[in-house]
Amino acid sequence: MMREAVEAWSKADEFAGIFMTDGRPRAVMSKPPRMQASKAFIREVQDLLDASTSTEEVADWIVNKMEDYGAHLAEPMFDMNGNGPACSFCKTLWPLCGHQHVSQRLKELESEADQ
């Protein structure tokens, strides 16, 4: 289920195809494989480097890309004691953090509820 969800999230968004692994099988519950940048993502970064005028501009782009990716997967969660909802990404009280505005997972949950 999780693999299918991640594939669905990646189909039509800015994060599609930015990660690669070596493709080797791994043992269950072993460490996740080390991720590598795809050629498309490398080109995106190179274009940014070519157009940027400062290190700060590049650093800001990187942290915003990371924030966008994490927020893209955010959803409301409850802890084992029933406290919540809290954002699965930033752990702030959901929806006060604002990640509901960019969460693809929330859009999926809402469309499932409509069906």
Average pLDDT rating: 84
Individual helix count: 4
What value does the Rg take, in angstroms?
A: 17 Å
Percent of residues in β-strands: 5-15%
Structural class: mainly alpha
Report how far apart the termini are.
19 Å
Q: What spatial order of strands do you see in the largest sheet?
A: 1-2
Number of strands: 4
- Helix coverage percent: 40-55%
Q: Could you name the ranges where pLDDT drops below 50 across 5 or more consecutive residues?
A: 8-12
Largest sheet: 2 strands, antiparallel
Describe the 3D structure.
Helices cover 44% and strands 7% of the residues. It is mainly α and 115 residues long. Mean pLDDT is 84; it is low at 8-12. The longest helix is centred in the middle third of the chain and has 18 residues, at 55-72. The chain has helices at 2-10, 39-51, 55-72, 104-114, and strands at 19-20, 36-37, 76-77, 86-87. The chain starts with a helix and ends with a helix. The chain has a two-stranded antiparallel ribbon. Strands 3-4 form a two-stranded antiparallel ribbon. The protein has four helices and four strands, in the order αββααββα.
Keywords for this entry:
single chain, 115 residues, mainly alpha, two-stranded antiparallel ribbon, 4 helices, 7% strand, extended
Q: What is this entry, summarized?
A:
The two termini are 19 Å apart.
Task: Describe the SSE topology.
Blueprint: H1 2-10, E1 19-20, E2 36-37, H2 39-51, H3 55-72, E3 76-77, E4 86-87, H4 104-114
Antiparallel strand pairs: 1-2, 3-4
